[in-house]
Predict the structure.
Amino acid sequence: MTNLSKLFVYCLAALVGVKAEEAHGYRVSPIKMHYFDAYGRAESMRMLLEHAGANWEDNVLAGESFAAFKEAGHAEFSQLPVLEMEGRFYAQSTAALRLLGNKFGYYSADPYQAWEIDSMVEHALDFQTGLWRIKYAPNDDAKTAARENMFGEGAYLHKWLRGTEQRLVRNGNSGHVCGSSQTIADFALFSAFSSTALNNMSDFQKDISEHIDKYPNVKTYVEKQIEENAKRMDGRKKLAG
Ligand SMILES: N[C@@H](CCC(=O)N[C@@H](CS)C(=O)NCC(=O)O)C(=O)O
């Protein structure tokens, strides 16, 4: 075979390959996480995508780029995060996390198991909402009151950690909070710890980490999840929260 014929055969094979890949959906654009430069409401999804080995990337928005993103109609409720996948834009972080869970095998078709998972996702969000109330309090008095509600004697943090501990015990302290494998509940729960207690740039690190030792199952869970999410933990940008 001459060099020219070899080149022709090579090009033909490459073209057929590309067409086959397109037909089977392999050559799709990366999944995009559109969010601000923060862990916030996007971190559980980023952890899932990294754990799944998905082809994904961050698109960090702020000011003008956020305005342009909204102007383009990509943020259905004018807020972030927005997950972009296969040409569609998905708002509402919990619903988008569940979508990823379904797509990548971190959710359950069983309604009772799904409740176990969803209830922990909400539990994790309650915790983060309490912290955001402190962080974004409109004035010093409101901040002090929100801090007291969260970290005061017998306040919400203690209820929250106790509830987390009990659920982990009920699940057999398997390193996962629901069942015996990683679910969106783990990404939601661990991302809450990773953004705060494990984050030396967080305003709340000390307030939270000093209490974790009182809950041995929570402590073990966090250690196991650090290993489970090592790829994300090692590779991610350091942010305050
Ligand atoms: N329920 C929504 C809440 C989204 C939300 O509050 N996003 C905030 C950032 S965490 C936001 O976009 N703030 C900017 C704005 O409202 O203009 C979700 O979970 O996605």
About this structure: Residues 9-26 have pLDDT under 50 and may be disordered. The pocket of glutathione is lined by residues 40-41, 79-81, 92-94 (CB under 6 Å). The beta strands are 31-35, 56-60, 82-85, 88-90. The CA atoms of residues 150 and 159 lie 10 Å apart.
